[in-house]
Design a protein that fits this description.
Layout: H1 7-21, E1 25-30, H2 35-44, E2 48-53, H3 63-83
Parallel strand pairs: 1-2
């Protein structure tokens, strides 16, 4: 679906498509560090979600990259839990 510019918008768009089709469950394939936030956003959008973290992609290339993604996703998850917004939707954050 081309409607989402970030995970939160994508989940909201997918949720609407699921509602139209009567679907309620999904398996989300994403990097290991993004899985928890993605699952929470899906569940908040009314989708019963399970994650299947991938072992490939830019977030798992090196230890340095993994550490950067872990910090980023931890901050993004805490922001989402506190405000209900994604990084892209937060005031003053890209």
């Amino acid at each position: 679906m081309p409607e989402g510019v970030d995970t939160l918008e994508s989940m909201r768009s997918v949720s609407a498509a699921f509602d139209e089709r009567g679907w309620t469950t999904a398996v989300l394939v994403t990097d290991p560090w993004h899985a928890m936030r993605t699952q929470r956003m899906a569940e908040d959008a009314g989708i019963e979600a399970t994650t299947s973290p991938t072992r490939q992609g830019p977030s798992v290339y090196s230890r340095t990259t993994q550490v950067r993604y872990i910090f980023r996703e931890t901050a993004a998850y805490l922001l989402y839990r506190a405000t209900g917004e994604s990084i892209a939707g937060a005031p003053g954050i890209g």
